[in-house]
Sequence to fold (533 residues):
Amino acid sequence: MRLEVQALETGYGKAQVLFGVDLGVEAGELVALLGANGAGKTTLLRALSGLLRPWKGRVLLDGQDLKGLSPARRARLGLGHVPEGRQLFPLMTVEENLRLGAAFLAPGREKEGYERVYALFPRLAERRRQLAGTLSGGEQQMLAIGRALMGFPRILLVDEPSLGLSPRLAEEVLLALKEVARGGVGVLLVEQNVALSLEVAERGYVLEHGRVVLEGPAQALAQDPRVREAYLSL
Amino acid sequence: MRGVFAFLLLFALLPFLPLGVWRAFLLDVGLFVLLFTALALSWDLVARTGQLSLAHGAFFGLGAYGTGLLLPHVGTLPALALGALLAGLGALLLGSVTLRLHGLYFAIASLAFSEVLRTLALKLPFTGGPIGLPVPPPFGGGLPLAGYYLAFAVLALAVALSLWAEKSPFRLAQAACRQSEAVARVLGVRVVRVKLLSLFLGSLVAGLSGGVYAMKALFLSPYEAFSLARAVEALVIPIFGGLYTTLGPLLGGVVLVGLEQALRLWIQEGYLVVYGALLVLAILFLPKGLLGLLGGRRG
Fold:
């Protein structure tokens, strides 16, 4: 499975946010989308999953144009989205949150899904009967990723998973995403934590003011003087 | 779950209990408890998707007028069914234009819908206008318990729908819509469809309870059938009993409708002051409703 974005432009009302973005994510690959606050990273993810209508350009999933398809329809085609700020259902238990992830995308595969998520995040298994609102920040992020995995996505969009996490937990979560990619899922990781993302990702894009200004293998980006100066403050 | 069935059993057997001189009065109160509890459940069914409906008075009125107007021509049960369908059509019309609105905005739109319908009932040439519409009793008036058991059937239907929505994946879809629409969408929930179906099912039940009410009251006026007080009652009962559950509105309905009647008997003049004070106390001290007393969890 391959996600391809061609010359995408979009925004809110009259305010244009993206000015022609091109990028691609292959199955089994972890791709980092980097950039400062307001660069348009979250907007791009929202346009990919159908929560925001593109003005121009195309989003292709395995060559199929997603134009006009609802978010629910895109999710059924294998496009998973872990929204910014986790957005769990706090009054449901961990397991109910997970079940919700499978209920409409992979009904009947719940058992397989639980096993996969609990293998990836063993602490969720310990807390399966606990209300999601009572989990720590790191566990909530794990649950948000687990909930998206319950739908067996083939491309997974993850928005700022390290937000508000301690460095150690952030690393744990990003390594888990690496593991997900190894399992054959294409992961598009949106992050402000540039150093950590470039450690785990294979490739990366740098977004500035709604345009891709740099792209390439993660190692090359980490060595690039512009990235080092602007994002790694070296 | 057992509470729900005990409740239904009690009401099924009420006419056969030795009630003595109170029988006629208690059966009347019982009928209104059944109807308004069904209305409350139908409101809760919509509330579970996060939509605050003030149109339930309108669905109730559509069912009442539809049934009342058709009853002389097609007979009791078809008139009820068509009245409910009229309410359902109203809900689809309202829903298709407003369900993209959230919470308070939807509430205002549904209130406007309700006002428009009341004006229509006042002005249309065949509704009897402000003078009102006389309605015959069910089945020609030959069966004294017919109204009571029709009301019971409406409540049983409301309970069945509510239990289905609670036990099936539909519960997850509704809860997801209520808590975060964007997340519900990316998890594959067809949000508009879930909201529209909930509103449609809720309006059918509200329409049925309006129809049975019409045949019990024997007379409809636009102010009575489309009153905002009805819409408010439909939402006060679930909030008082416990939102997003089946048992909550059941408990709330029995206690509130029963309480209103009892206060009317004991205190008479000014009983609504006491009724209101009790509601305020309940909101202050029972944020989860009566179910909170039983240690119920909702979410």
Remarks:
- Chain A touches chain B at residues 49-51, 70-72, 75-76, 80-81, 83, 87, 89-92, 96, 99-101, 103-105, 107, 131, 147-148, 151 (CB under 8 Å).
